[in-house]
Amino acid sequence: MTNILEVKDLNISFHTFAGEVQAIRGVNFELKKGETLAIVGESGSGKSVTTKAIMRLLPPGNSEIKAGQILFDGKDLTKLTDRQMQKIRGKDISMIFQDPMTSLNPTMTIGKQIMEPLIRHQDMSKAAATERALQLLRLVGIPKPEQRIKQYPHQFSGGMRQRVVIAIALACNPKVLIADEPTTALDVTIQAQILELMKDLQNKIDTSIIFITHDLGVVANVADRVAVMYGGKIVEIGTVDEVFYNPQHPYTWGLISSMPSLDAKEEELYAIPGTPPNLLHPPKGDAFAPRNEYAMQIDLEEQPPMFKISDTHYAATWLLHPDAPKVEPPAAVVKRMRKFSEMK
Amino acid sequence: MQNQEKLLEIRNLKQYFNIGKPNEVKAIDGISFDIYKGETLGLVGESGCGKSTTGRTIIRLYEATDGQVFFKGENVHGKKSRKDLKKFNRSIQMIFQDPYASLNPRMKVSDIIAEGIDIHNLAKSNKERMDQVYELLETVGLNREHANRYPHEFSGGQRQRIGIARALAVQPEFIIADEPISALDVSIQAQVVNLMRKLQKEKGLTYLFIAHDLSMVKYISDRIGVMYFGRLVELAPAEELYSNPLHPYTKSLLSAIPVPDPETERTRRRFAYDPSSHKYSENEEVSMKEVRPGHFVYCSELELKKYKEESKS
């Protein structure tokens, strides 16, 4: 499969009164045509900053791309002028935001908001754009589109609004769709419908999706590949089966073990101790080391490189170094690994 | 569980907003349930189903439209003397959803935690007051140096710990936790849930745990109530509810929870709930009925028979 988007050695800092916050510290990944890549991590891990950098939505005043490239269709997006970027944003790459209550303009009818990118990017006439808008509303499953198109956002429920936001994002058949926690603000029943809808649309128009979430259940549902972020870096990346059934990084182990399972009753939940690192003063070694019960001396001194586990699976932990001692992962992870060896 | 002492009895509770206006909302429309001493009752449902309103009405943040709430046999609502109210307020405490909005940014942590201690005169001297604050901070996994700081200096998980310490300060018997972990990161959620369970064991607390994250609710609760549009539609022990859901809404809700397991997700079927599928006739009596011991479902006589059959097989 061909790569549609490549992020290479991206470094982003924010200049604040307290000093320089190194939000992204060397992120590398590629997005293949037609796939869904999920980025998981807790708040402050840099998942939203990475995608905002791709869309060039970071605040221009205090953010800075210190190094790295974002290659889309062979072009480096970081080098484009604002005007060139405007031609790509909303057309080739579009975005769905977390909160459907605030990402729509309350003073414009939803019809007008869907037609906006069509008229701007595709030079459609008003009549053609209306026709296409109706078609999009039908596509995302909004009943009676002829009436709904004239209504304002407040006349829609949360789930319906998120469908409208998806319709806007899909208006120009984007090559890349970035979904930043698109279902976090929704109820589980509505979430299930929206996820179903996104998968269905992906099959129809062959878009590549970057899906940001902190819900591992959602990841298991939508993703082809998963990248786990921590402290401004990707610490593990692989196919969804590799990350869920054969995780290698202790942070991934912690995430997986701290979720209660529906079929077993655990005495106590595994909790990752401590709090996320302060990226104002990023640690010298592995950012996860202070919370990591498997940490070794070298974790505090030197950042681990990406170790290769398979052609598609990489993890940044010194535990994968040939000289590292063998450790026993948490019980929940061992159970999953057993399943992984059976699957092969 | 049934032989245990009832701590809280809720009888036909109703909470309407904007009564008599065109936009009247029946947020809670006649619900009844009991909470036993020492248990955790989970309350789940989608947004707008009335689960938070239920919690807030129980603790008297809203005056109930109709129905009764009995705490240890005493009616909570209705006219009360200042003294009675104070006693009641001391026995029931609340932990709120948003740890960023529920702490006054202009108060020091020590004053936030000690507010209840001051109101109820639980400390005789300033030293005793601060000793209690230090002890509470240590109980919730913070340390005494934190007492002199302000809320903005803490992370979300730490703030929620402060909220828990504040609730514990007046030594309550019953705590209503309204989505206490929804605003927290995954790795922090487990910390707070473990803390709540530990405190329950040590202090014999009773919880009403309101949430929409069903896997966490199942983990922490002894019994779970499912709400839909202001009504309780199913109430059962946690294991029973998950292994043997009867009401179609519960089934649909359970089928919608994403599980962190790609294999299961690939093969799962989801059901949608259609409220009109019940086809209740006009004067059919629909109410909470016991299908199996401890397992209640909101249904008609006809459905009761069907559910009884279903739960046997």
Automatic annotation (TrEMBL), chain A:
<dbReference type="InterPro" id="IPR050388">
    <property type="entry name" value="ABC_Ni/Peptide_Import"/>
</dbReference>
<keyword id="KW-0547">Nucleotide-binding</keyword>
<comment type="similarity">
    <text>Belongs to the ABC transporter superfamily.</text>
</comment>
<dbReference type="GO" id="GO:0016887">
    <property type="term" value="F:ATP hydrolysis activity"/>
</dbReference>
<protein>
    <submittedName>
        <fullName>ABC transporter ATP-binding protein</fullName>
    </submittedName>
</protein>
<dbReference type="InterPro" id="IPR003439">
    <property type="entry name" value="ABC_transporter-like_ATP-bd"/>
</dbReference>
<keyword id="KW-1003">Cell membrane</keyword>
<dbReference type="InterPro" id="IPR027417">
    <property type="entry name" value="P-loop_NTPase"/>
</dbReference>
<keyword id="KW-0067">ATP-binding</keyword>
<keyword id="KW-0472">Membrane</keyword>
<dbReference type="InterPro" id="IPR003593">
    <property type="entry name" value="AAA+_ATPase"/>
</dbReference>
<dbReference type="Pfam" id="PF00005">
    <property type="entry name" value="ABC_tran"/>
</dbReference>
<dbReference type="Pfam" id="PF08352">
    <property type="entry name" value="oligo_HPY"/>
</dbReference>
<feature type="domain" description="ABC transporter">
    <location>
        <begin position="7"/>
        <end position="256"/>
    </location>
</feature>
<keyword id="KW-0813">Transport</keyword>
<dbReference type="GO" id="GO:0005524">
    <property type="term" value="F:ATP binding"/>
</dbReference>
<dbReference type="InterPro" id="IPR017871">
    <property type="entry name" value="ABC_transporter-like_CS"/>
</dbReference>
<dbReference type="GO" id="GO:0015833">
    <property type="term" value="P:peptide transport"/>
</dbReference>
<dbReference type="InterPro" id="IPR013563">
    <property type="entry name" value="Oligopep_ABC_C"/>
</dbReference>
<dbReference type="GO" id="GO:0005886">
    <property type="term" value="C:plasma membrane"/>
</dbReference>
TrEMBL record, chain B:
<keyword id="KW-0547">Nucleotide-binding</keyword>
<dbReference type="GO" id="GO:0016887">
    <property type="term" value="F:ATP hydrolysis activity"/>
</dbReference>
<comment type="similarity">
    <text>Belongs to the ABC transporter superfamily.</text>
</comment>
<dbReference type="InterPro" id="IPR003439">
    <property type="entry name" value="ABC_transporter-like_ATP-bd"/>
</dbReference>
<protein>
    <submittedName>
        <fullName>ATP-binding cassette domain-containing protein</fullName>
    </submittedName>
</protein>
<feature type="domain" description="ABC transporter">
    <location>
        <begin position="8"/>
        <end position="254"/>
    </location>
</feature>
<dbReference type="GO" id="GO:0055085">
    <property type="term" value="P:transmembrane transport"/>
</dbReference>
<dbReference type="InterPro" id="IPR017871">
    <property type="entry name" value="ABC_transporter-like_CS"/>
</dbReference>
<dbReference type="GO" id="GO:0015833">
    <property type="term" value="P:peptide transport"/>
</dbReference>
<dbReference type="Pfam" id="PF00005">
    <property type="entry name" value="ABC_tran"/>
</dbReference>
<dbReference type="InterPro" id="IPR027417">
    <property type="entry name" value="P-loop_NTPase"/>
</dbReference>
<dbReference type="InterPro" id="IPR003593">
    <property type="entry name" value="AAA+_ATPase"/>
</dbReference>
<dbReference type="InterPro" id="IPR013563">
    <property type="entry name" value="Oligopep_ABC_C"/>
</dbReference>
<keyword id="KW-0067">ATP-binding</keyword>
<dbReference type="Pfam" id="PF08352">
    <property type="entry name" value="oligo_HPY"/>
</dbReference>
<keyword id="KW-0813">Transport</keyword>
<dbReference type="InterPro" id="IPR050319">
    <property type="entry name" value="ABC_transp_ATP-bind"/>
</dbReference>
<dbReference type="GO" id="GO:0005524">
    <property type="term" value="F:ATP binding"/>
</dbReference>
